[in-house]
Amino acid sequence: MDAHGADGLPSHRSFQSGLSWRTILAKRENFRAAFAGFDFRGVANFDDNDIERLLADEGIVRYRGKIEAVINNARRTFEVVQEEGSFAAFIWLYEPAKDDALPQMRSKSTASETLSKDLRKLGFKFVGPTTVYAFMPAMGCINDHAEVCWMRKDVETARNTLRTPT
């Protein structure tokens, strides 16, 4: 996954903090349109006029702090890409060891806590360990489907064929 594809996921997920997933998923396409398809290169160039436009957009969650965080995070993503080559490569540095990646009913992990802490050190916002944990399976870093879940085998097969980003 390239940095473009990776960026939309944490941005989209940061809006969920404090709200139901149903609310966010119902507005997914509105978010995508409002935030330039979550292309971090475009969002990083948003200015005060864009913030005002987004605050007036009834199709998205209009919380200034989260809107500003997405723009900030796009700028920070650009910096990570310059340093690491891709945002995905950076995220995959936090792939947990096999034993730590076993499926459990949880909302965060040691890996997501570490990644969250490091993202915040880099200036990212609204990237708590629960938000980051929700992002990690979407990136393929973990397979948190229970052993009895019909999706677990498919996800594990996809993970085994995935080339980790470099």
From TrEMBL:
One of its GO terms (molecular function) is metal ion binding. Zn(2+) binds at residues 145, 149. Transmembrane segments: none annotated. Gene3D superfamilies: Hypothetical protein, domain 2. This is DNA-3-methyladenine glycosylase I. GO terms for biological process: base-excision repair. It comes from the Bacteria. Coiled coil: none annotated. Keywords: Metal-binding, Zinc. It comes from Primorskyibacter flagellatus. The keyword Zinc applies.
